[in-house]
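Private note to self, pasted from the team thread so I don't lose it. Backbone tokens:
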């Protein structure tokens, strides 16, 4: 595997996608209350019509619409009030021409009626005689049986991530348990003799571990269960033991640091050995993120990510997260939310590799401006200041101030 023979991001994404299996954690059934954000494992259809009966959307009188045609303030239509629909009970009446029935919002439309006149367009002095002051059209102020969801209609497809609205639709259909794909358990390993834990005061050439936290947080945001395997010294055998433990206990493993070609960069050799030569690439034509490794150890994908925190996060976003989404059974590995924004300055870029530019989004005079956040890929503040990422494709030699760019948003409002 030649480190300097970098492959394009698109090729890498394809190789990763082809190597993965969907939902290695299988399918589980969860209570509706626990189902928000879970990925549905099978198409879901309604067992019966929703609503199960036609109902009024207003307080008023259930009528035959044609009885009201021609009604007006000066020429009211007179109808006989023959009863009242009670909330939550079957409508006992059958409305015939010339009749009206009192109905509350949400009440069951009585047989014969096809519309409801709102209370404010009527007068009823003696509870028996109704004056209708405005006509209603057929179906007006009524939700008909099955109008919301028809019996047998698939209203949630396998592979979609359940939203609050879909949870509501499931509740409406009486579906109290949902089959969802299992959540992925992911192992995170940091490496480096210089890297120390967050609660240690660094001395000499030491730095605190950032990547365990950023990568773990990104995976947690993508609904993974994260296991942390600590900080491993630049030692082949120690790294080997840590990776063996992680691939045994989890379904996907991230190792950061030691992915380059220096004397202490052991990751590629460990994956090569444990994976029986199944390192699929080492070197991506992207900046930041060139020293990226991908291999399989048995059925477990292992990513070697660059040590620089910005590079590790960028590769995680563009390569690891789509892989996780596929393994979670999500139907589309859709990119996150994109917004169009106007770039505020010229940015040079080397052709032949994808450049990822971090930008701050500023809303000004009805449009977004994308202000580049410049800085080296070892600086975590570059990420904290950015709202999103712009990909400058390998074919481009740069962007100009005023260019409209696609920003993949990383930060919610
Ligand atoms: N001769 C070359 N040297 C380097 C190249 C190259 O192509 N040729 N690529 C550079 C690029 S690009 C990057 S990115 C880094 C990545 O190298 P490694 O993945 O081997 O990472 P390390 O050398 O272990 O660390 C690099 C840098 O990141 C810091 N680091 C590592 N882990 C953490 C962590 N968990 N938290 C915070 N900071 C971390 C580490 O201290 C180093 O400063 O290689 C370039 N070199
Ligand atoms: O991956 Mo590196 O961060 O381009 O310096």
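Design output:
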């Amino acid at each position: 595997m030649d480190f300097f023979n970098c492959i394009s991001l698109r090729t890498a994404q394809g190789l990763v996608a082809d190597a993965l299996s969907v939902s290695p954690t299988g399918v589980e059934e969860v209570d509706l209350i626990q189902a928000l954000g879970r990925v549905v494992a099978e198409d879901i259809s309604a067992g019966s019509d929703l609503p199960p009966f036609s109902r009024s959307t207003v307080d008023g009188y259930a009528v035959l619409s044609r009885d009201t045609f021609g009604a007006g303030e000066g020429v009211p239509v007179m109808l006989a009030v023959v009863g009242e629909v009670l909330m939550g009970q079957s409508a006992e009446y059958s409305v015939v021409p010339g009749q009206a029935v009192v109905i509350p919002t949400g009440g069951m439309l009585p047989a014969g009626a096809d519309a409801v006149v709102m209370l404010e367009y009527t007068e009823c002095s003696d509870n028996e005689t109704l004056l209708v002051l405005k006509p209603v059209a057929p179906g007006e102020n009524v939700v008909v049986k099955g109008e919301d969801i028809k019996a047998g209609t698939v209203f949630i497809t396998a592979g979609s991530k359940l939203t609050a609205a879909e949870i509501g639709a499931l509740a409406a259909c009486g579906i109290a348990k949902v089959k969802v794909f299992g959540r992925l358990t992911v192992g995170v390993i940091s490496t480096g003799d210089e890297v120390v834990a967050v609660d240690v005061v660094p001395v000499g050439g030491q730095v605190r571990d950032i990547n365990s936290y950023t990568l773990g947080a990104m995976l947690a945001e993508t609904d993974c269960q994260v296991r942390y395997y600590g900080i491993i010294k630049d030692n082949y055998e120690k790294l080997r033991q840590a990776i063996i433990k992680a691939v045994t206990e989890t379904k996907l493993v991230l190792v950061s640091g030691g992915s380059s070609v220096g004397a202490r960069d052991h990751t590629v050799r460990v994956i090569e050995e444990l994976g029986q030569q199944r390192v699929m690439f080492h070197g991506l034509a992207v900046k930041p993120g060139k020293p990226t490794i991908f291999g399989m150890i048995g059925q477990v994908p292992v990513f070697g990510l660059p040590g620089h925190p910005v590079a590790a996060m960028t590769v995680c976003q563009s390569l690891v997260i789509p892989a996780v989404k596929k393994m979670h059974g999500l139907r589309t590995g859709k990119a996150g939310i994109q917004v169009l924004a106007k770039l505020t300055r010229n940015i040079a870029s080397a052709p032949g590799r994808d450049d990822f530019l971090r930008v701050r989004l500023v809303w000004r005079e009805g449009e977004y401006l994308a202000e580049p956040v410049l800085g080296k890929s070892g600086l975590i503040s570059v990420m904290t200041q950015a709202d999103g990422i712009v990909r400058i494709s390998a074919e481009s030699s740069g962007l100009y101030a005023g260019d409209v760019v696609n920003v993949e948003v990383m930060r919610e409002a």
